[in-house]
């Protein structure tokens, strides 16, 4: 659906913060599957964690992202913003298993808006936290993979500038409303 917009990019690059700003403006947002899985796995003592069993973690992320898309189709309003989503989860699964066939299949069957917003590496704001244990170099490597991947799947990558949170949210909304993009999304 073209009203589904992905905000992806570098871990620690400010994705969740800009999504919170969009939510405050009244837009529907979907929290990153990975964060929810990590919280649930740690709470129950599970092992589907990216630092324990990346393949199991990624399979759960793909399933959750598919469920998120189904639930989001019921969300009122125009844009629905996803913190990462299905493509990121499928990319993690491909990295963990070496099999990229599911990535291509999922990308064809479950499209997002043609513009994907990526937050670039921003060392000055990067911090580790319980749900993000990897260091900045691993975050940059992940960002580089996504930066190369999205265009191969037919998406236009739009880099989110390193400005204030309010300016980042305004940038995303104005880019989506630009004359060369739809102001009122419609289903594919």
TrEMBL record:
| Domain NadR/Ttd14 AAA residues, every copy | 5-168
SUPFAM superfamilies, A to Z: P-loop containing nucleoside triphosphate hydrolases
What name appears for this protein in its UniProt entry? Answer: AAA family ATPase
